[in-house]
Design a protein that fits this description.
heterodimer; A: 310 residues; alpha+beta; 3 helical TM bundles of succinate and fumarate reductases; six-stranded mixed beta sheet; 11 helices; 6 strands; B: 157 residues; Ubiquitin Conjugating Enzyme; four-stranded antiparallel beta sheet; two-stranded antiparallel sheet; 20% helix; globular; OTU_dom (chain A); ubl conjugation pathway (chain A); ubiquitinyl hydrolase 1 (chain A); Papain-like_cys_pep_sf (chain A)
Amino acid sequence: MQLPSGSQTPGQATSSEPENASRPSVVVNENTDISLLTQAQLYDLNQNLLEDAVPNIPLIGPLSSISTLRAEYEEGSRSFVNQVDYLASQGYLSVRRARGDGDCFYRSLAFAFIEYLLNSPQTNVAVALATSLLESTIPMLEDAGFQKLVFEDFYEVLLSLIQQIVVPEPGGTTLTSETLLEAFQSPEVSNSVVVYLRLVASAQIRNDPEEYSPFLFHPELGEPMGTREFCEHFVEAVGKEADHVQMTALTRALKLNLNVAYLDGRSSTGKVDFVEFRDPDSQLENGSPITLLYRPGHYDILDKRTAEAL
Amino acid sequence: MALAYTRRLNKELAEIHAGTPVGINLVNADTFEKWLFTVEVMGTSEYEGEKFLLMFRFDNAYPISAPAVQFVVDDTHKAPVHPHVYSNGHICASILGREGWSPVLTVIAICITIQSMLASCKKKEQPSDNDRYVPRAPENPKKARFHYHGTCWRSAA
């Protein structure tokens, strides 16, 4: 549905006759004369536009060359271009984009983690370790006060995806890069995984308030927040972006090593700072940590391989 | 996979059949599209002797996104007069919107929240923008945008 800009607030006054609260929704196409719609219809239309505000790009995209990232800044900021070039010089040849829906950190991390397991030289061992780690999150979530009923469906989606690396689906095949991408592009699978990681991060924070409570601040107001309130509003709620606290909690709970490249356009030399999240018990070798790309308000996945090499 | 939300609702229903909190009773859960509960406030409150019918509507985005929840308003049922409840039954509560919903909430958790919202009411009055909101409200309350700042404000959007 495309509307000319400005059509959400038409200058022309329309009559606002009394209407019932329930009425058929308006079908709008390119032939619709916006000025003939009632106030109520315009209100609905605007609401629908708000619903569709997130651009229609895949939840997780295919691997694309880092030059596509560079192209975004070539017309604009030189310092961003320099930083993209720096990433390329460090061997990051590709980027895999996540939809900017507020879940991109969790979604990117989950995808990169499962892909890491998939490409591990000994998948049997990697999957067995990941499975036992995932199993250990169940008592953790229960300790945090979550009912099994509310999280077990999400858990099973993530577990079966990881299991599918070594055990073929009934009547199907084992997981490949392609089917992993398909799974992450399907909202039901993808969002279930996101929710589970959110609950793991939340449980980690809730179960260790002494460790985390000094760092719990309202992201907009900057005021300190209670653990429960913070977790309910900014960890468990879908669509709320992760900040340092959530990232720390999640990487610790999952014993992951993670590098986050901060592309902020602030460096004069073009160098990119990598923030390292390290867990002493991590099963990921230090040499091949998962690397995410951070640009203000958004996360994508960085990759040293090219799409052709996959 | 296609019907993950019905799997979750089935589990919730099994719990509901095993027992609901005092003042909350299942009226109908014959389909996975729509459930109905009666809600009463127990003990002393502004709503003594009143019983309300609460309607839940689900789609396959549940429980990633909230169900559509409202009081039924028809010949035999009225919405409670409350600063956060519009006369068409729509409810302004943060847990029902994007800001406050989380998949760890359940149908019963929503019932309890709404029951305590009524129980804590000090003065029965309609939302200040009731007359402005109701004639223009979308049929589905999930399509409305509410702001939550202690009192109830409908979004100017």
